[in-house]
Amino acid sequence: MYKKYFPKGFSKGFLWGGATAANQVEGAWDVDGKGLTTAEVVEKAKSRTDITLSAVSKDSIEKAIEDKTTENYPKRRGVDFYHNYKEDIALFAEMGFKAYRMSIAWSRIFPEGTESEPNEAGLAFYDKVFDELAKYDIEPVVTISHYEMPLNLTLKKNGWIDRSVIDDFLRFTDVIFKRYQNKVKYWMTFNEINAAIWGGFVGTGSVDSDMSESEQLQLRYQALHHQFVASAMAVKQGHAINPDFKIGSMLARGVSYPKTSNPVDVRAAQFVDQQNLFFDDVQVRGEYPDFMNRYFAENNIVIKMEPDDEKIIKEGTVDYLSFSYYMSNVTGAVKSDNETVGNITEGEPNPYLETSDWGWQIDPIGLRITLNELWDRYQVPLFVVENGLGAVDKLEEDGHVHDSYRIDYLRAHVEQMKEAVKDGVDLMGYTMWGPIDLISAGTSEMSKRYGFIYVDQDDDGNGSKKRIRKDSFEWYKKVIHSNGEDLK
Fold it and tell me: CA–CA distance from 171 to each of 116, 159, 254 (Å)?
């Protein structure tokens, strides 16, 4: 039957908010029994184009362990959300946040990752954070594993390549699901799970920098398989503890357009797209797609599975699909020397698009395209949990940051989300990245700023850490108040 009605805007319960990660905002890296994490041994980059997430070796880890400072490891200091969470959450509430996406630092709960009993001080900290959010009716959306794991699991097991880490992870999820079952409804298992392949160490916790490319691929896909199994088991575990839990997957979505209408370019772009969506095929559909089985065979990649793994993955599909979206790029059949690297994506620049200070191509319409493609493919609720503009903000003499460029970027993306909703896409919410300035994931810079809230801290950690509202703060407040209708 023809359906005459279509949505005219965002749903009444739309989850407007912002997103951060524990290792980028919390700081307090050696406080209250917290253990060292994989994120805290990644050195800061020497330049904006120097992505250091996977450039980790046994020697560099030993060096990091000996270094007890934050100078070369800015994620250890973050922006001190650990001691400022009340002030920061109050600012989120002032904007009208309906949701705050955050992560729980695994090593605050299990410092070594292998303990039988959790660290009560770590659990108590998140109790306080969730209670503060509840005071303002802000829904927590919790990422369980966001680019960090207890470093001990790397030192003793080389991360997710060791299947026993599944048990360590499930011990962690069992504790937090039970502890916060009445405080948290929305969860996601792994942040940008495709980082396991693109970034190696940052996603797997496995050191593979001394391996050949073929050896790296074998290790990374095997480690990823263990994450798929762990995620599926956690979904089932969480639903048993609280049937009302909504547990999702999270992908770094990279849209790639064909360089030309030549079919070979179209197929090249389609292949890149398949490589990106395969992760959701497993977590949403519950099985490895045939095109990846062919890829494994042609690249001599052998995924070692236990007898029940396929059944576990099939039974542990997620409730919703969340993703990050920052940019798009172009793919041709012939690899070009003129490639750009963005958020777990790489390809040729698009001559029709502008770029950010970091060379990321700004493509709002690509977000509408993505939402429609994901909805058509999976037919599960979608959630945009990262989208934002990293820029060099300047604190002016008048004491303000006039970031009209950020407003323009976000406005254009929200407009395209609204169009996707009108197209019929089931969209749960939008948590932009990141509402408060934080340490960059890729380069550990502070000067790459995303927030509505300026933090007075430079790349070397100097500054008062004072929080200052940017112009975009008031703009987003208006957007939320009008449920996305007032975008001026």
Answer: 8, 16, 32
In angstroms, the Cα distances linking 469 to 31, 95, 174, 464 are: 28, 10, 38, 15
Q: What's the DSSP call for residue 244?
A: T
Contacts of residue 465, defined as CB under 8 A and 6 or more positions apart, other chains included, come to 79, 80, 84, 455, 456, 457
Note the pLDDT of residue 122: 98
Closest CA to 41 of 5, 75, 83, 8: 75
Q: What is the DSSP string of 76-135?
A: GTTT-HHHHHHHHHHHHHHHT-SEEEEE--HHHHSSSS--SS--HHHHHHHHHHHHHHHH
Which pLDDT score, from 0 to 100, does residue 8 have? Answer: 84
How do residues 81-119 score in pLDDT, each as one tens digit? 999 999 999 999 999 999 999 999 999 999 999 999 999
What are the tens digits of pLDDT across the range 163-190? 999 999 999 999 999 999 999 999 999 9
**Distance in angstroms (rounded) separating the CA atoms of residues 283 and 286:** 5
Task: Quote the CA–CA distance of 107 and 362 in Å, as a whole number.
Answer: 35
As a whole number of Å, the CA-based R_g of the chain is: 21
Can you count the helices (H) and strands (E) in the chain? 16, 16
Q: Which amino acid is at 136?
A: Y
What are the catalytic residues?
386
CA 44 distance to own-chain centroid = 19
Residues in the chain: 488
Q: How many CA atoms lie within 13 A of 281 on its CB side?
A: 13
For 15-481, CATH gives 3.20.20.80
Please spell the DSSP secondary structure of 186-218, one letter per residue.
Answer: EEEEETTTTHHHHTTHHHH----TTS-HHHHHH
Ordered by start, the domain boundaries in the chain are: 15-481
Consecutive H or E run containing 427: strand 427-433
Cα separations (Å) of 99 from 136, 142, 185, 317, 385?
Answer: 10, 10, 11, 23, 10
What pTM does this model have?
0.95
- Cα–Cα dist 449/74, whole Å: 14
